[in-house]
Amino acid sequence: MNLSPLRLSLSCLVFMLCLSCHDVTDTELKVLISNVSIIDVDAGILPNVDVLISGNRIEKIGKDLSVSHVNEIDGTGKYLMAGLWDAHVHLSFEPDIEESMLDLFIVNGITSIRDTGGQIDKVKKFKEEASQKPTHAPRVKIAGPLVDGPPRVYDGSSAGVPDISQGVNTVEEAKQAVDDLVEQGVDLIKAYEMLTPELFEAVVTTAKGHGLKVTGHIPLSMKVQQAADMGMSSIEHMRNLEMSMAKDADKNVLERRALIAASQDSLGYSLRSRLHTSYRNNSILSIDPENKNNVLTSLAKNDTWQIPTLALILSWRLAPWSDTQWAETYDYLPASAAKTWEEGTASMRELPVDPKREIFMTWASEMIGEFKNYNIPVMAGTDCPIFFLTPGFSLHRELEVLVAHGKMTPAEAIKSATVNPALYFDMQDELGTVEEGKIADLLLLDKNPLENIKHTRSISAVIKDGYVHDSQALETLKQTLKSKGRS
Ligand SMILES: [Zn+2]
After folding, report:
1. 32-60, pLDDT tens digit by residue?
2. pTM for the full model?
């Protein structure tokens, strides 16, 4: 970035003098990004404009703005876009990584995240920490624990199955669980796979009563249409969508309901695995076009959004653990985590590719195009740090996979990580685009991401809540992260 050193130091001096006399006026806090090209996912490029940031807001966008007392950033040849969201994150899933999570997002230009499941005390702490330093941490939205029926899946029964859910057994308990989470300040509710239709309905109705969205996985004892009609707002990983597209969808769902009722002594995690193994590929191989159309029409009619986490689903095909460039992202993890991940991925490399996985991966990739055909909105999310996905870096990877394997255009992929999540949280007047009056959560890029989605990685500066992290500051932060790692 070409900051004028003289202008910067003068401005800093004025700023410091003013600080000492407790008389900070707006003018000293302004930043002007001059002659930059703005990325607009609908209209394309808005070339060669000046963007004036005042405090934490975009004050003005125009040609040749003349403003005094500003820190000027020369945006010539650069691109300015809205800060990115990762809409599927687990801040408290892996204790070894927790301390680095927020910084990993900032260095990668992820200025907002949506936590989709964790113990309430832990994720609340992240949310509080982030809100206390809004210029140096992403905005954090939380779901709290997954609300699950018996036997719940994430029950803490082993290291890979942490206790990040809250079990409910009756309609009363389901309502109470949601009321309690609302009291704790969650931003949405996540419903999970073992809920019965009655419990699921209680969760959705209670959440709606509080004005909160319900996301989650389609419960194994329900059809997609039923969950969408009840008011489920969004679905993670396209989980269990295929089961309602099968020729025998109606018969199968009753069968699963009976199996779950008869398996209450099982561990939830292994019961769920058994049901996925029995029904997932068989459903895909017996898709009935009318049932498929009914599912997609129902999602569109009910405005039920999708967070496909496509890179996660395609992990077995794309094998990021064999990619040396990806392995380098582990340098930014704390040493203990990097070691665990290296050992974990090394063992993955030796596993033969199971052709059965291809059935699901092919179906999942095709669904992205179907969502577009049916006008079903999509949000980019990663599920990091699950399955060796490095926080921050993994969102750029998700965007690339949505384009390469989901056949999205770069503009559509960027929309899924900017405009759409802002809309999802009803923050479209504050975030999601580069427009006057909005919060200055921005990315300054060296290369045009509409030409090549990989260019979202060409980060020259990250602006969070009006504060500029220039390339030097980002490099320092990266080195700090690395120093906690192995190097
Ligand atoms: Zn997840």
Report:
1. 999 999 999 999 999 999 999 999 999 99
2. 0.93
Burial of 309 (0-12, 13-18, 19+ CB in 10 A): buried
How far is ligand 1, taken at its centre, from the CA of residue 310, in Å? 12
Q: Where are the domains of the chain?
A: 2-82+432-483, 85-424
Q: Find the length of the chain.
A: 487
| Residue 25 Cα distances to 5, 16, 17, 473, angstroms | 22, 12, 11, 25
Report CA(281)–ligand 1 centroid distance (Å). 21
**Cα 117 to ligand 1 centre (Å):** 7
User: How crowded is residue 15: how many other Cβ atoms within 10 Å of its Cβ?
Assistant: 17
Domain 2-82+432-483, CATH: 2.30.40.10
Q: How big is the CA angle at 80 (ends 103 and 468), to the nearest 5 degrees?
A: 45
CATH assignment, 85-424: 3.20.20.140
Question: What residue has token string 């590719």?
Answer: 353
Cα 482-484-487 angle, rounded to 5 deg: 50
